[in-house]
Design brief:
By secondary structure, this protein is mainly alpha-helical. It is built from 12 helices and 2 strands. It has a two-stranded antiparallel sheet. Strand 1 and strand 2 form a beta hairpin.
Length: 286
C-alpha cells in the first residue's frame, strides 16, 4: 500500500510528462542536432557535423548587431512596461470594486485582440499620413510627419502596448497579498505616504515586478510579428533573422543555431536578473 501510494503522483503526472516531452523536449533536441549539421548551398542540409554555425552567429558583426538590437529592444520595453504597469496596477487596486472591474477590463483589452491585428493597427497609426502625424500636424506641434514605421522607437511603442497588460497582471496579483490596513496603520503612526510606499508597498510589489519583467523580457526578445511589421526588413531582430534563415535562404542549420543562441542568451539574462532582484528584495525585507 505504501509503495502504491508513493507511486500514485508519478503515475498521475505521466500523461503530462509524456506530452511535455513530445511537444517541447523532443523538438528542442532535434533543433540542437540540426544546428550542428553542415549546409551546402547546392545540396542543402548535409549529414556532417560542424560548429561553424555557432561560430558564425557569435563572431559575425551582422548577427552581433542583431542580438544587441534584440536585447536593447527587450530591455527598453521591459523598463517602460514597469514604469507604466506597476503604478497602473496600484491605482487599480485602490479603486472601488465597481470601477476596478471596468478599468481592469480596459487595461487587459489588448490581450483580447490578435497580436497581428494590433500591430497592423499601429502600422496604420504610424504612417506618414496616419492619425498620429495628421493630429500633430494640425495641432502645429510638428512641421513635417515624424518617422515611426521602420524605426526602433516605433517598435518599442507597439511592443509596450502588447506587454503592459502582462506587467499589470503580475503586479496586480502581488498587490492582492497587501492588506490596506497595514498602510493605514503606518499612516496613523506618523509615517509619510512616501515612506509607506517605500517600506511597505514596494517590497510587496517587487516580486510582481520581477515576474512581470521576466515575462515581458521573454516575450519581447522572442517576438516576431511586431518587429517584423513595424520594423520591417531594416530592423531585424533575432526572431526575424531566424525566420529568414529558415524560409528565405533555407539555411536551416544556421537558423537553428540562431534560435539556440537566443534561448541561451535569454536564459542567462533572466537568471542573472532574477538573482540580482531576489538579493535586493531580501535586503529590503530585512
Amino acid at each position: 500500500m505504501m509503495t502504491s501510494a508513493r507511486g500514485t503522483p508519478a503515475f498521475l503526472s505521466l500523461p503530462a510528462i509524456i506530452l511535455f516531452t513530445a511537444l517541447l523536449i523532443v523538438p528542442m533536441v532535434m533543433m540542437v542536432v540540426l544546428s550542428f549539421q553542415e549546409y551546402d548551398q547546392m545540396l542543402g542540409v548535409a549529414s556532417g557535423a560542424t560548429e561553424e554555425n555557432y561560430l558564425t552567429v557569435i563572431t559575425d558583426p551582422y548577427y552581433q548587431e542583431i542580438f544587441l538590437r534584440t536585447l536593447g529592444l527587450a530591455a527598453a520595453t521591459t523598463l517602460i512596461s514597469i514604469l507604466i504597469g506597476a503604478p497602473e496596477a496600484y491605482i487599480l487596486s485602490r479603486m472601488s470594486r465597481q470601477w476596478r472591474s471596468l478599468f481592469l477590463v480596459i487595461c487587459l483589452s489588448p490581450l483580447l485582440i490578435s497580436v497581428v491585428v494590433r500591430t497592423l493597427g499601429w502600422a496604420m497609426l504610424f504612417g506618414r499620413h496616419g492619425l498620429i502625424n495628421e493630429t500633430l500636424l494640425k495641432l502645429g506641434l510638428i512641421a513635417e510627419p515624424m518617422a515611426f514605421l521602420y524605426t526602433l522607437h516605433g517598435v518599442v511603442i507597439a511592443m509596450v502596448h502588447v506587454c503592459v497588460p502582462f506587467m499589470v497582471i503580475s503586479v496586480w496579483i502581488a498587490l492582492q497579498r497587501l492588506d490596506p490596513k497595514v498602510e493605514a496603520a503606518a499612516l496613523s503612526l506618523g509615517a509619510s505616504k512616501l515612506t509607506v510606499l517605500r517600506r511597505i508597498v514596494f517590497p510587496q510589489v517587487l516580486p510582481g515586478i520581477l515576474s512581470g519583467s521576466l515575462i515581458v523580457f521573454a516575450l519581447c526578445s522572442s517576438s516576431f510579428a511586431t518587429p517584423g511589421i513595424i520594423g520591417g526588413r531594416q530592423l531585424k531582430v533575432a526572431a526575424t533573422a531566424t525566420h529568414d534563415e529558415f524560409m528565405s535562404t533555407m539555411n536551416w542549420p544556421l537558423g537553428a543555431a540562431l534560435a539556440i543562441v537566443l534561448l541561451i542568451v535569454n536564459a542567462a539574462v533572466m537568471l542573472s536578473y532574477n538573482r540580482i532582484v531576489e538579493r535586493r528584495y531580501a535586503r529590503i525585507s530585512q
